């Protein structure tokens, strides 16, 4: 029996929030016919951090985590986790087993320690060798060195059952590319 735990988890990030709408990129294997909203967060990194470098050099743009939770009213939220220190952010509890069609909150978190320039976040869900969702989000105004970022995608769980990779990627200029992966089991 599946247990739904809708607790908030604290991450030591937070900051300004905005809402934007993205359209999924059509997957080569299977057309994506859904769109998702993206909620964004950014906050300066705690000092000290390295000096910025030009956008054409490797400079510390790194995807740090991808987390999947069920869409939960009131989260993500900023400065909402008591006794967590500041800055902080509350997220839906991360889950592994989801039902087809569940509404998911997929959180992607990255940092730009020394990179300043354009950056694009990508979210890809792969079931077996098939891409079942693919969307991108260009960060408004680009990334700035010395900042932490979060982008939360709201998407329905795939209809294809089984183990599904959830891949978050961040790309900037030059060799600045990073990604991380987690998994869900779609029932």
Structural class: mainly beta
Low-confidence stretches: 1-35
Number of strands: 13
CATH superfamily: Immunoglobulins
Beta fraction: over 45%
Estimate the mean pLDDT confidence. Answer: 77
Beginning-to-end CA distance, first to last residue: 12 Å
CATH fold field value: Immunoglobulin-like
Tally of helical runs: 0
Q: Number of domains in the coordinates?
A: 1
CATH architecture field: Sandwich
| SSE order | EEEEEEEEEEEEE
Question: What strand order characterises the main sheet?
Answer: 2-3-11-8-4
Which sheet architecture does the biggest sheet show? 5 strands, antiparallel
Residues in helix, %: under 10%
CATH top level is Mainly Beta
Shape: globular
Describe the structure.
With 187 residues, the protein is an all-beta fold. The protein has a single domain, classed as Immunoglobulins (Immunoglobulin-like), CATH 2.60.40.10. Helices cover 0% and strands 51% of the residues. The protein is built from no helices and 13 strands. It is globular.
Brief summary:
0% of the residues lie in helices and 51% in strands.
Write the layout of secondary structure elements.
Layout: E1 8-11, E2 16-22, E3 36-44, E4 61-70, E5 77-78, E6 89-92, E7 97-98, E8 103-112, E9 120-127, E10 130-138, E11 147-156, E12 162-171, E13 177-186
Parallel strand pairs: 7-13
Antiparallel strand pairs: 1-6, 2-3, 3-11, 4-8, 5-6, 8-11, 9-10, 9-12, 12-13
